Amino acid sequence: MDFIGAYSPDNLMFLVDGFWITLKVAAISIVLSFIIGGILGILRYADIPVVSKIVAGMIEVIRNLPLLLIIFFVYFALPEIGIKFSIEASAIIALTVFESAMLAEIIRSGLNSVPKGQIEAGRSSGLSYIQTLWHIVLPQGIKKMVPPIVSQFISLLKDTSLATVIALPDLMHNAQVLNAQSINYIVPIFILVALMYFVVNYILSIVTRRLELKAS
């Protein structure tokens, strides 16, 4: 094992560049999937004729597909019908599609946890269905949604490593490039990569625990 060679300034900077891509892709995917997942979750919860069933079908299909398959589909299959994205955009789209379906179920479950009597009370007080949803159901449901949502974001950050298969220059990809330079780099590089993932995910875990305490 060559820790000195593996941790040379150039190698460390190369890993930092990859980690920046990982965080960037994860951050954009988190924002997009939260917005889309929120909309889909509310649509499914609202039980709108036809619309809710279509949304439910889409969510179930996506949730039961491997994320790796979705990444391959976006990057390799869509160009066959004239829709082509860059490597980074393909990773973001695939992660967003997959995570939106996961978050939609979390949000729907959180809304379903609110007693139906709360909705009836809101409607009887003169509020519209949307007002009841916004002012009564969401504030109560979000307390139970936040911890699993943050946990899902942690999973998303780790799932970015799957985009290595389409050569996304993220942390895992750059680690593999360095490992190919010398067999003596493998253990030192993977120790550092594991530490970098751990630090970010541990911080998110602490946030989750604090949110759970506030919600209880």
Calculate the terminal CA-CA distance, rounded to whole Å.
Answer: 48 Å
**Which blocks of ≥5 consecutive residues have pLDDT under 50?**
none
**For the record, what is the CATH homologous superfamily label?**
MetI-like
Count of alpha/pi helices: 9
Q: Name the shape in a single word.
A: elongated
CATH fold group: MetI-like fold
Fraction of residues in helix: over 70%
**What is the H/E string?**
HHHHHHHHH
CATH class: Mainly Alpha
Number of strands: 0
What is the CATH architecture term?
Orthogonal Bundle
Q: Report the biggest beta sheet as strand number plus sense, adding barrel if it closes.
A: none
Structural class: mainly alpha
Average pLDDT number: 88
Number of domains: 1
| Cα Rg | 21 Å
* Percentage of β-strand residues: under 5%
Membrane topology: Multi-pass membrane protein
Domain ABC transmembrane type-1: 19-208
Protein name: Glutamine ABC transporter permease
Family: Belongs to the binding-protein-dependent transport system permease family.
